[in-house]
Amino acid sequence: MKIAIGADHGGYAMKCVLLSSLGAKATMIDAGTDTRESCDYPEYARAVALAVAKGEVDFGILVCTSGVGMSMSANRFQNVRAALCATVDAAVMARQHNDANILCLGANSVSADYAAEIASAFIATPADASERHVRRRWLNERAGRLSDASGLAKADPEIFAAIVAQTEQEDTEINLIASENFSSRACREAAGSVLMNKYAEGYPGKRWYSGCLPVDAAEELARTRACRLFGAEHANVQPHCGSAANMAVYFATIKPGDTILSLSLDQGGHLSHGSPVNFSGKIYNIVPYTVDRKTEMLDYDALEAQALEVKPKILLTGASAYPRTLDFKRIREICDKAGCLMVVDMAHIAGLVAGGAHPSPVPYADFVTTTTHKTLGGPRGGMVLCKAQYAKALDSAVFPGMQGGPLENIIAAKAVCFREWMQPEKKDYAAQVVKNCAVLCKTVQDRGYRIVSGGTDNHLFLVDVKTTKGITGKDAAAALDAAGIVVNKNTIPYDTESPFKTSGIRVGTASVTTRGMKEPEMIKIGTWIADVLDNIADTSIQERVKREAKALALGFPVP
Ligand SMILES: *Cc1c(COP(=O)(O)O)cnc(C)c1O
Question: Which residues line ligand 1 (CB under 6 A)?
Answer without folding.
Answer: 179, 241-243, 270, 272, 318-320, 345, 347-348, 371, 382
